[in-house]
Amino acid sequence: MSYTANSGRYDGMTYRRSGKSGLKLPVVSLGFWHNFGEDADFEVCTDIVTSAFDLGVTHFDLANNYGPPHGSAEETFGKIYKNNLVPYRDEIIISTKAGYGMWEGPYGDFGSKKYLTSSLDQSLRRMGLEYVDIFYHHRPDPETPVEETMDALAHAVRQGKALYVGLSNYSAEQAEKAVEVLRSMGVRCLIHQHKYSMMTRTPEDGLLDVLEENGVGAIAYSPLEQGILTNKYINGIPKDSRIASSSIFLTESSLTEAKMKAVTALNELAQSRNQTLAQLALSWVLREERSTSVIIGARTVAQMKDCVGAADNLTFTSDELSLIDGILASCRESR
Ligand SMILES: NC(=O)c1ccc[n+]([C@@H]2O[C@H](COP(=O)([O-])OP(=O)(O)OC[C@H]3O[C@@H](n4cnc5c(N)ncnc54)[C@H](OP(=O)(O)O)[C@@H]3O)[C@@H](O)[C@H]2O)c1
User: Rounded to an integer, what distance in angstroms lies between the CA atom of residue 261 and that of residue 273?
Assistant: First the structure.
C-alpha cells in the first residue's frame, strides 16, 4: 500500500458536519463490534481497514468491550494502526466507549467517574494511542448521577485523552439533560450514537429533534439490522453469516416471515435504483440530513466496498419513500 498526497482517497466520499461542530465525518463509518475479535483473520481485518481508509472512510468506531473477548477489537485496531496508519493519525477519527460490563468488581461497569476514567486509559493502552478523537458514554446509568458521568467525560477532554465526547443509547430526555450538564461544564456534546434503520425508527420520536436543537450530531449504528437489510438471507442462512456464527445478538428467530417478505420487496426496489439492498438501506438512513453518518459492520472487503457505494446516491423520490413505508409497515421494531 502506498499513499501519496493526492491519493484521491477523499474524492468519492461525502463528509457531513457533526451537528454544529467543526468536525466532519464520512457518511459511511466503520465499526468494530463484530469481525475484529481474537478469532478474526488479522490479514482480512487489515485489508478491511486500509481499503476503507483508501475509500475515504476516515472514522473508525470502537468500544472497550468489542471483541470477543472484550478489549480484543481495540487490540486488533491497535496493531493495524501501528503497522499501517501511524503516519495518518491526523487524517483519521478514532472513537471508543465505556458503559457496559468490562471487568470484575464495582468499578468496571455503567457510569461512575472511576470506571470511565480507568476504562479510557485501558483503551488507549490497547490501541497504542495518546488520545481518542471521540469518547462516548455507551449507555445511560440509572444509578449514577448524570453530573458524575458527564464530569468523567469532561475530565477526559481536560486531560487531553479525548478531543470530543459523545453519548450513546440515551433517550431524548436523557440526552437533553446530559447535553445541558456537559454545556454547564464548558464541554460540548459532539454526537449521539443510536440504532437507526428502515426497521428501527425510534430516534424519529424526539431524539433527532433534541440533537438538532442542541447542535449535536447523530450517528446510526446497525443500519443494516446486522445484515437483515441486505440480500444475504433471502435464500436461506449462509454458513459464514452472523446468524450462522451463533451470535447471541442476532438469531434465526429475527428472520420473521413479515421481515423476509419486506426484504424481498426492498431488494426489488434497490435494483430499480441500481443499488444493492445494503446500499438502499444505508442511503435511506442518510436521506435524513440530520444523520451525520452510518456505522457499518463489515466481515469482508467486498461488503465494506459495497456499503461505501451507498454514498453515491443519497436521494429518494417521495414515491420511493412512500413505497418503503408501505413495504415496512408490518414489520417495524418500533414506531
Ligand atoms: N453504541 C452502541 O450501543 C452500538 C451497538 C451496536 C453497534 N454499534 C456500532 O455500529 C457498528 C455496526 O453495527 P452492526 O455490525 O450491527 O452493523 P450492520 O451494518 O447493521 O451489520 C453488519 C453486518 O451486516 C452484514 N453486511 C455488511 N455489509 C454487507 C453487504 N454489503 N452485503 C451483505 N451483508 C453485509 C455483515 O454480516 P455477516 O457477518 O452476516 O456477513 C456484517 O457483519 C458496530 O461495529 C459498532 O461500531 C454501536
Answer: 19
Is the C-beta atom of 227 inside 6 A of ligand 1? yes
CA of 64 to the centre of ligand 1 (A): 17
Integer Cα distance of 230 and 323 in angstroms? 18
Strand partners, 57: none
Q: Which of 100, 123, 230, 286 to mutate to test the pocket of ligand 1 (most atoms within 8 A of CB)?
A: 230
For 122, 160, 251, 289, the CA distances from 125, given in Å and listed in that order, are 5, 15, 34, 36
The grid coordinates of residue 301 equal 472487503
Q: Is 311 in contact with 13 (CB distance < 8 Å)? A: yes
Q: From the CA of 193, how far away is ligand 1's center (Å)?
A: 14
Q: Is residue 277 part of a domain?
A: no
**Per residue in 12-31, pLDDT tens?**
899 999 999 999 999 999 99
pLDDT digits (tens, 9 = 90+) for 56-98: 999 999 999 999 999 999 999 999 999 999 999 999 999 999 9
Q: How far apart are CA 127 and CA 204, in angstroms?
A: 34
Closest atom of ligand 1 to CA, residue 33: 45
Residue 65 falls inside a structural domain: yes
Question: How far is the C-alpha of 53 from the C-alpha of 28, rounded, in Å?
Answer: 11
Instruction: Give the number of domains in the chain.
Output: 1
The residue among 21, 53, 267 whose CA lies nearest residue 166 is 21
Cβ(296) – ligand 1 distance below 6 Å: yes
Domain housing 46:
15-227+285-313
Q: Contact, 131 vs 161, CB < 8 A?
A: yes
Q: Give bridge partners of residue 29 from the DSSP assignment.
A: 295
Which tens digits make up the pLDDT trace of 235-294?
A: 999 998 999 986 788 999 889 999 999 999 999 999 999 999 999 999 999 999 999 999
Specify whether the CB–CB gap between 126 and 71 falls below 8 A.
yes
Within a domain: 181: yes
